[in-house]
Structures are given as structure tokens and as C-alpha cells.
Amino acid sequence: MRPFQHPAWPHVRAILIGLHVLSLVVLSLPDAGAVHSRRRWQTANARADLRQLADRLQRWGFDTDERRLGRTLWDMGTAYLRVQQPIAAPFRWYARITGSRQAWRMFASPQRHPAELHVDLERDGRWETIYVPHSDQYAWNREQFEHNRFRKFLGRFARGFIPEHYKKAARWVATRAAVEHPGATQVRVRLYRYDSLPPAKVREGQTPHGHYEHAKVFDAEALR
Amino acid sequence: MKRLWSAWVTLLSVRELGTSLARFRIAVGLVILYSLLSMIAADLVEVMWVDASYGGLQALSTQHWLIDVLGGRTPQTAWILVGSGLVLGGLLVLGLGGRLTALCALQVYYGLTSAKSTLAGGYDTMITNALWILVFAQSTATLSFDCRRRTGRWTSDRLVSAWPRYLLILQLLVVYGTNGLYKLSPVWTPGGDYSALYWVFVEPTWRRFDMAWTASVFGLTQLATAVTWWWEVLSPLMLVVYWARYTAERGGRVRRALNRFDLRKPWALVGIGLHLGILVLLNVGPFSPISLSYYLCLIPPPAAPKSGEDQSTQSRKIDPIMSSKPT
Fold first, then answer.
1. CA distance B205 to chain A (A)
2. Which of A123, B173, B283, B305 is least surrounded by Cβ atoms within 10 Å, i.e. has the fewest?
3. Is A101 helix (H, G, I), strand (E, B) or coil?
4. CB contact under 8 A, A199 and B44
5. Residue A160 touches chain B, beta carbons under 8 Å
6. Which residues of B touch A14 (CB under 8 A)?
7. Paired residues of A212 in beta bridges
8. Predicted interface score ipTM higher than 0.85
9. pTM of the predicted model, to two decimals?
């Protein structure tokens, strides 16, 4: 008798599929990265969310404020993870081996304080901009930068800045710019951070104004 | 408990024509081709999938066994995997190689996209999840070269297990349900101003073009935000709808009310509208195409004809859960 024709097979299969379903559900619930990431909690976005949430709860008659609500949520997260982590642990290796991971937080807290990557060159003692996202005027290397994977990667610097990732990315961008612009003496890579404008201000014709941060200047010759 | 277990085993023993799973396989193959070709077109293979020590953008993980076997995240490894991925994506579309093709495609695509979490997206996970289920599905039973070789025809009445399709539908419901739960920001949830989609539209990371015009249709974006959030959060309730259809013969007021209208259709229509909207307005790569591929599993295959090709070894049942009318 072939194994799949054995009378026990439908039961064995039902157990295996049941475990897969369990893995799917358990691993799709928020994990430590979503609940207890201090880097995420400290972003301008998360702070704004907390502020709005505290305001809302106050309107509904709860005695709380941003600080107390933050502490309560953090403690709730700790209690939740105490239960979630041991339950999820046995399924993690299965998901890692099979590629059936579950982590779904698309657009969970839309970015209201974006950071754009800007690239400048110094030529003949003067700085000139060569790349600004969505600009037809400063469109150097846009095929790469505006591919969805690159955009997403760059967008993460506003979401939770990881210095090591930024350092490597800035160096890679500067190297490419230096090689493709032989006349350049320096390359500057910066993040332009601004607050997205609410609809009323956009309707008034205002445009966002921000500031530069994490500027990295490279000697072009050394990169070539 | 015994009755529940028996119902579970019976549900997983359902067999049906392989048309829906075959369509899904073809769609997943096309999405893989698109995902890989877009990387080649943007000249990003050696940027994203090669380690910084070999000229890539970031330091990458070498945990996947294939990377180890191929000698690390080098340009050569990246191109071997991309080339193999293209061939395997093509084979999935053509339906050649059965489950082995799906298994190899999974290893190759997972090997590539597990390079670094910050260089991957939710769509990569949806693709690998799809491939893992396809490993267990007889997705080349029809509409495939395998079928042509086996029967001399492109289509076949051969019955296949329906549970892989059920799992794919469940996957879709879980994705939406948990996505809704993650969206606890005040800009998404009731009591807030439902401004989430407006902020998504004006963010430089996602928008395809200048979306400042959405400020003048803010009310519409609020409505779309509310519909999206409620639709996502309530998606797991579709399981109740499916259950009501599966057990329609038991009767009861709630069951009859749920079965009066085919609630799966408006649910699917909202989802398709949402993904088409994302496709047009936002640049999220293969996210909408792979999501819509899962929707193909919502379309039940035609009822099996009375004299199927290989019904001798299995009890032949018409899929009672996903058929167009409750039984």
C-alpha cells in the first residue's frame, strides 16, 4: 500500500495542515519588532500617534496623557510578548526554513515626517544638486533610486534611522556619483526632512519646508 | 471534538478540478518574472543582492543554504539565482515540472530576497508563501505542459486536492485581518480623522506622481480610508460566511441570512478595487499583482464532469465551500 493511500493518511495530513494554519495565525500577530522597538517608538510619527491617541482618550473621559499612555502601552506590550513569544517560538524555525513568514504591517502608520535623499556635487568650487526624488530637473540615477525596492529602503530612514545602513548607502551613492561625474571634487549625500502638509494648507497653496540632516561629504577622488 | 475533527478531515479531503490552482500558478509565475525583470531593468541585481564587500549597497545575510553553497553574496551568485529564477518563473507559467518547479522557485526566490529585511517587502513574503503552498498543490494537473505530456491535451478533468486553495484563501484573510490590526494609528481608526490614505498619497516613498491634488478631494480619501480599515479588520469574518455556506443544509436563521446574498462577491470587489487603486496611484512593486493572484483562488473551478480522468482512487466531491451556490 502506498503511504498516501493508507487509511491514516487523511488524519496525518489534517494534523500537518492544522499546524501550518496555526503557524500562519500565530506568526501574523504583532511581534517584538512591532510592539517593543524603541527606535520606532521614538520616531516623530509614533510620538504624533501617541499624542493624538492620548487626546482622543481624554475626549472620551479617560484620565491620561501622552507620557502615561506611552508607559501603559509599553507595559501592555511587555505582558503581551510574555505570552506571544513562547507560543511563536516553535513556529519560527518552520517559517524561516519554508519562507512562510507572516508579518503584515503595510502602511500601518503613514509617514507624516518623510525624509528624502538628496545628492549634490561640488564642481569648480560650486555645489550643484543632481538628485531629488520625483524631480525631472535633478534626476540623476532615478531609474535605480525610484525602483520600488530602493524607494522603500530609503523611506525606512525616516521610519527608524539605522546609522550603519545609512552610512553604507551614502557611501555607495557617493561612489557611483563620483565615478559617473569625473569633474566632481566632492559628493554630498543628505536627508531632507520635512513635515507633510495637511490638506487645508496644501489647498492654500503652501509647500512643505524642511531641513537637512545626516549630511555626509565624500572626497570624490578617493571614491573613484 | 470527534465530530469537529471528522469535519476537518472531510474538509481537507475535498477534491476538485485543478483550474483555479492552475490559474494561480500561472499568475505567481508571471509575478516572479516581473519582480526579477524589474530588478534587471533598473540595474539593481548587483546593488541589492550582492554584499557590500563585493560592491553592493548593504551587508547581506548569508543564512540561506543556497547562498552558502554558491559561495556567498557575490555578483556571480546573484546572477545565477536571478537567471534560475527567470527560468523557474517561466516553467511555472508553462506548467512544467510539477511540484519540483515550485520547490526550486521557492528556494531561489527566498535565497535572493532573504538577503536583508530592509531590502525586501511584504510582497516577497506573499510570493514565498504562495510558492510553499504550490509545492503541495497539484497545480499542473491542467492548463500546463505537464498535462499536455500526460494526456495529449492542454486541459484535464483530473481532480486535485482542494485544500491548497483553501489555505491560499485563508492566507489572504489573515493578511488583511492582521494588516487591519496593525493599523492602530489614530489616522486609521474610528474617532480619528481617517486621514491615513491622504498621508500615504503625499509620501514620497510610495506615490507614483505628484498627489497634492488629493488635498482637494480629502473627503474621498477619508471615505476610502474608513472603507479600507473596516474592510481589512472585518475580513476574517469571511470565514463565518464560508462556514455558513459549507453547512447551509443545517438551516437556521443566521445561516439563512448569511446565505441570502453571496457576501464573497462584494468583499472581493472591494479588495480588487483597493489593489487596482494601489496599482495606479502607488509604486509598491509586485504587491498588487501578487495580491490579486490570490484572488484567483476565490473563483471556484467548474464542477467536475461525471466521468473524470482519475476518479477511481478518490471519493469525488464537489467543493461545497467555494462553489458559487450554497449546497
1. 5
2. B305
3. coil
4. no
5. no
6. 5, 8-9, 12
7. A192
8. yes
9. 0.93
pLDDT digits (tens, 9 = 90+) for B69-93: 999 999 999 999 999 999 999 999 9
> In this structure, which long-range contacts are made by residues A73-79, counting pairs with CB atoms below 8 Å and at least 24 apart in sequence?
A74/A36, A74/A41, A77/A35, A77/A36, A78/A36
A172·B212 Cβ contact <8 A: no
Query: Residues A109-131: pLDDT tens digits?
Result: 899 999 999 999 999 999 999 99
Tell me the residues of chain A between 105 and 124 that have a Cβ less than 8 Å away from chain B: 105-112, 114, 116
Check residue B305 and give its pLDDT.
Answer: 81
Residue B309 has pLDDT above 80, yes or no: no
Beta bridge partners of B228: none
Q: Three-class SS string for chain B?
A: CHHHHHHHHHHHCCEEECHHHHHHHHHHHHHHHHHHHHHHHCCCHHHHCCCHHHCCCCCCCCCCHHHHHHCCCCHHHHHHHHHHHHHHHHHHHHCCCHHHHHHHHHHHHHHHHCCCHHHCCHHHHHHHHHHHHHHHCCCCCCCCHHHHHHHCCCCCCCEEECHHHHHHHHHHHHHHHHHHHHCCCCCCCCCCCCCHHHHHHHCCCCECCCCHHHHHHHHHHHHHHHHHHHHHHHHHHHHHHHHHHHCHHHCCHHHHHHHHCCCHHHHHHHHHHHHHHHHHHECCCCHHHHHHHHHHHHCCCCCCCCCCCCCCCCCCCCCCCCCCCCC
Q: To the nearest whole angstrom, how far is the Cα of B119 from the nearest Cα of chain A?
A: 6
Are the Cβ atoms of A49 and B186 closer than 8 angstroms?
Answer: yes
pLDDT tens for B244-284 read 998 999 889 999 999 999 999 999 999 999 999 999 999 99
- Give the number of A-B residue pairs with CB atoms closer than 8 Å: 187
pLDDT per residue as tens, chain A (224 positions): 566 788 999 999 999 999 999 999 999 998 888 888 888 788 888 888 899 889 989 988 999 998 999 999 999 999 999 999 999 999 999 999 999 988 777 888 899 999 999 999 999 999 999 999 999 999 999 999 999 999 999 999 988 889 999 999 999 999 999 999 999 999 999 999 999 999 999 999 999 999 999 999 999 999 98
Chain A residues with CB-CB distance to B207 below 8 A: 134
- Nearest CA distance, A166 vs chain B (angstrom): 9
Q: Is A172 on the interface with B (CB under 8 A)?
A: yes
